[in-house]
Amino acid sequence: MAKKAPRRTAERILEVSLELFNRFGEPNVSTTLISAELNISPGNLYYHYPAKDELINALFDRYERALSELLNAADGVRDVEDAWFFMHTLFELIWQYRFLYRDLNDLLSKNRRLETHFQWVLKNKTRAVRAMLDAMSRSGCVRIDSREVEATATSMVVVITYWLSYEYVRDPRHALEPESAQLALLRGAHHVLNLLVPYLEENQREHLMRLAGAYSGPDSGARAGAQGG
Known about the structure:
By secondary structure, this protein is an all-alpha fold. The protein has helices spanning about 10-25, 30-40, 40-50, 50-70, 80-95, 100, 105-110, 110-140, 145-170, 180-195, 200-210, 220-229. Helix 4 runs antiparallel to helix 5, helix 4 packs parallel to helix 8 (about 110-140) and helix 5 crosses helix 10.
């Protein structure tokens, strides 16, 4: 069987950088560490990405493209089941690029391009959540006054954007480790959708409670620890 062609160096640099940024936080990862992890010379890395910001921007571009594609599906959400899947998928994408959210304030203060583009990210998330609420209203599973839509959508986006920060503060040593991912994402999806509880039809409210019941109890932290162990 023919061997697969080796991945291009630029691609490998991005993959390893993302892994290291996610594991240690972007401020704690130098280009020297990235080069050493890849077993290439710093000059080889600089040939592809002359500055660390170019690495960050390239990873952000990937995230932005994937996010845009996902958010475009928001108007296809019809009920709690769809909303649960949509939110969980969104949190999975955020988790994949979690260094952006872990170090968000620091990154925005240092990188003008991220500062402007992340404003677009917030606007696009809010637009998508409004589209989701409109679609759920049309299907009859949500009844919400039009005057409350904007504030509700904004509140949901705040939770989406800062959920991983909350998880990190809650358990700094373990929250952003891979073994913690699944429960962190489920909790995030639950707390975003919980903002809709006052507006959900009764059967939809009950369905959301059932979806959340597996991990939202007081022993969820113990279950997370058991899963990680």
